[in-house]
């Protein structure tokens, strides 16, 4: 099949399974960034974006996480910009490698934001686990194919490296370890919280703007149909009718089967290419992405200056 260009992106000219072949020729222990990048921007760009969005959405059902996000106002008052900033910052290491200046700047910004709050290590580990587990399960259920063993190993190594750069301790070493962590954590910690529900509502409202207004009701129903019962229960969302849930999931599976007939994507599909990332039409400065918390404001702990030294005995 000859290559062609559609909407500024090149397709075809190589076998349909081109990116799987490329990834299988690489070593997931040393080439994990390249393998992960190929999966995200070439082989599964839409699926990975949806899966990672759902991964973040799951974290709102943990009261400690949802409540803090609500207190900051970042995902309720400026949800479009925070959505865009999160995607742009997290993308940098996969596009350019962890040692690239842009990737280092992005991770530094993420760490600066997180250090402003008293976030326990177990919450960091849980969030990291969703980035590994949710995409694997999404692609197994709805993708044109599941991740190969090589690609899954690369994903594990990629997020273990991200965890190391974020100084997260006790990160699992295998996919099974990440899956157990995520499942056990959700069973123990999922629960209702007004803050988590507010952040979830704001995020769903944003997602509705990604589609024409006449489709909003259908998109909202479709989103709830894709949530598993524990997630819906924790966030307080009503379950759609069973036929709606079955039809929604069947539609995604049909899309995956159809994509098996599509040519390989040669041009990368990055976050900046997505039409729903709208905050920076003229470009962005990585150092200015994200929030700059002020101590004592919007959930940011007050940093107390050291008090006077205690007098010496007998002084």
Can you walk through the features of this model?
- Keywords: Oxidoreductase.
- Its EC number is 1.-.-.-.
- GO terms for molecular function: oxidoreductase activity.
- This is Oxygenase MpaB family protein.
- Residues 60-255 form the ER-bound oxygenase mpaB/mpaB'/Rubber oxygenase catalytic domain.
- By secondary structure, the chain is mostly helical.
- Helices cover 58% and strands 2% of the residues.
- It has 13 helices and two strands; from the N terminus they run ββααααααααααααα.
- It has helices spanning 18-24, 32-43, 45-59, 63-72, 79-96, 101-115, 121-142, 149-165, 175-189, 194-208, 216-226, 229-235, 242-259, and strands spanning 4-6, 9-11.
- Strands 1-2 form a two-stranded antiparallel sheet.
- β1 (4-6) and β2 (9-11) form a beta hairpin.
- α10 (194-208) crosses α11.
- It is globular and about 55 Å long.
- The protein starts with a strand and ends in a 56-residue tail after the last helix.
- Mean pLDDT is 92; it is low at 302-315.
Topology (elements, then pairings):
Blueprint lengths: L3 E3 L2 E3 L6 H7 L7 H12 L1 H15 L3 H10 L6 H18 L4 H15 L5 H22 L6 H17 L9 H15 L4 H15 L7 H11 L2 H7 L6 H18 L56
Antiparallel strand pairs: 1-2
Helix pairs in contact: 1-2, 2-3, 2-5, 2-8, 3-7, 4-10, 5-6, 7-8, 7-9, 10-11, 11-13
Give a quick rundown of the structure.
InterPro entries: MPAB (IPR046366), MPAB/Lcp_cat_dom (IPR018713). The protein has 315 residues and is mainly alpha-helical.
Tell me the fraction of residues in β-strands, as a range: under 5%
Question: Low-confidence parts lasting 5 or more residues at pLDDT below 50?
Answer: 302-315
Which strand order do you get reading across the main beta sheet?
Answer: 1-2
Helices, by number, come to 13
Overall average pLDDT: 92
Tell me the radius of gyration.
21 Å
Question: Which sequence of SSEs, written as H and E, runs from N to C?
Answer: EEHHHHHHHHHHHHH
The helix-and-strand class reads mainly alpha
Number of strands: 2
Q: What proportion of the residues is helical, as a percent range? A: 55-70%
Strand count, sense and barrel status of the largest sheet are: 2 strands, antiparallel
Please give the alpha-carbon distance between the first and last residues.
Answer: 89 Å
Shape: globular
């Amino acid at each position: 099949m000859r290559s062609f260009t559609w909407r500024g992106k090149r397709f075809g000219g190589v076998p349909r399974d081109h990116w799987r072949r490329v990834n299988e020729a690489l070593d997931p222990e040393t080439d994990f960034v390249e393998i992960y990048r190929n999966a995200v921007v070439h082989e599964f760009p839409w699926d990975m974006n949806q899966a990672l969005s759902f991964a973040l959405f799951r974290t709102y059902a943990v009261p400690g996480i949802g409540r803090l996000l609500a207190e900051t106002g970042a995902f309720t008052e400026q949800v479009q910009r925070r959505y865009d900033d999160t995607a742009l910052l997290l993308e940098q290491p996969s596009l350019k490698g962890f040692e690239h200046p842009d990737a280092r700047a992005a991770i530094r910004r993420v760490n600066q934001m997180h250090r402003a709050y008293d976030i326990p290590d177990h919450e960091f580990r849980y969030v990291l686990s969703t980035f590994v587990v949710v995409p694997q399960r999404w692609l197994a259920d709805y993708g044109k194919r599941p991740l190969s063993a090589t690609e899954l190993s690369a994903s594990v190594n990629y997020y273990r490296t991200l965890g190391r750069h974020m100084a997260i301790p006790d990160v699992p070493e295998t996919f099974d370890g990440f899956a157990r962590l995520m499942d056990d954590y959700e069973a123990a910690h999922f629960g209702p919280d007004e803050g988590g529900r507010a952040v979830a509502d704001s995020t769903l409202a944003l997602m509705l703007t990604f589609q024409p207004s006449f489709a909003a009701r259908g998109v909202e129903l479709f989103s709830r149909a894709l949530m598993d019962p524990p997630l819906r229960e924790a966030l307080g969302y009503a379950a759609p009718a069973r036929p709606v849930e079955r039809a929604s999931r069947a539609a995604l599976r049909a899309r995956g089967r159809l994509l098996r007939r599509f040519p390989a994507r040669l041009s990368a599909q990055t976050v900046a290419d997505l039409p729903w990332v709208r905050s920076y039409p003229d470009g962005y400065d990585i150092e200015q992405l994200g929030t700059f918390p002020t101590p004592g404001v919007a959930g940011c702990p007050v940093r107390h200056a050291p008090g006077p030294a205690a007098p010496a005995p007998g002084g």
